Amino acid sequence: MAIKVDERCLYAKSHEWIRIEGEVAYVGITDYAQDQLGDVVYVELPEEGDSLGQGEVFGVVESVKAASDLYMPVGGEIVEVNADLNDAPELVNQDPYGEGWFIKLAVKDEGETATLLDAAGYQEFVEQGADEGGA
């Protein structure tokens, strides 16, 4: 199966991605995850200012097929949520690595990224049929 990955991102086995850009990191779900979910109809996101640890649930994404928890790929403080998703949750399907991002966060400990997969590792993980839950 050919899946789209973004080389600039790191990936959690629960199918979230993180892209660190300077002082902030963008977080969303992968192209594979949105494809498995089907049409996204609603996204529930945390409040700005919330601090969450790695692996904690930060929100929910609902599709026509299912609702799935979203997990923090690394710990940090939420500095912005993507308000565009309130009115246009389909952005998650249309542009999962771009306009479909969920949160921006100030990363607490960049060392936690060592537990994540790079693009090639994530692609291999998905191709092996691995599914550890999550988005």
Please give a quick description of this structure.
Helix content is 18%, strand content 33%.
Helical content band: 10-25%
Structural class: alpha+beta
How many DSSP E strands? 9
> What is the class in the CATH system?
Mainly Beta
Tell me the span between the first and last alpha carbons: 18 Å
Order of helix and strand elements from N to C terminus: EEEHEEEEEHHEH
Task: Give an overview of the whole structure.
The chain is of the alpha+beta class and 135 residues long. The two termini are 18 Å apart. A six-stranded antiparallel β-sheet has the order 1-2-3-9-8-5. The chain has helices at 31-37, 84-87, 91-94, 119-127; strands at residues 10-11, 16-21, 24-29, 40-44, 51-52, 57-63, 67-71, 76-81, 103-107. A hairpin with a 4-residue loop joins strand 1 (10-11) and strand 2 (16-21). The protein has one domain (10-126): RNA polymerase II/Efflux pump adaptor protein, barrel-sandwich hybrid domain (OB fold (Dihydrolipoamide Acetyltransferase, E2P)), CATH 2.40.50.
List keywords for this structure.
single chain; globular; 3-stranded antiparallel beta sheet; 135 residues; alpha+beta; 4 helices; OB fold (Dihydrolipoamide Acetyltransferase, E2P)
